[in-house]
Sequence to fold (192 residues):
Amino acid sequence: MESSEAAGAHDPITENMYTGSQNSFPGDLIDSSDLSNVDREQIARLMNSLARLREAERRLSEASRRFMKLSEQDMRALHYLLAAERQDSVVTPKMLSAHMSMSAASVTKLINRLEREGHVVRRLHPSDRRAYAIEITAETARSARETVGRSQARRILAAARLSHRERDAVIRFLDGMADELSLSNADWANQL
Fold:
């Protein structure tokens, strides 16, 4: 069976997900009549680049989950715990529940499973003896850093190749895109 990476390598539809015809770009959802053909082509290339980035992240995430034999939820929880460790912060089940958008019961099951598999430990909270803190084990942290962490860190190289002004432009673009994609702009999401 052909890998998903190899399968999409020369697929013109996948490589041009956001390219539209001159009259329909970017579809019938947004009026782009004031854009020149050059602008439309550049925006399509930009959107296709974002799609390739998302696909590369998806493949990396999938490979890391398979390598570490963890679910997507497990990886999200461990990533949060790694970030907390770097920031020298204490993580409680309540904090993990909020980050994961999960109920307290579901987070307890997640913690139990990760603890059983040797990925996390529970310790008494350093300042609240009624609570406990969750920490990633040294072995899991080392494994995550040496595999997916090392790969993810290479993104910094792409950012470092940009000038200060180019990075500011990318930051404005990504923040603007995040704002546009916010569920607060989606009336249908209020119906959920």
Notes: The longest helix spans residues 37-68.
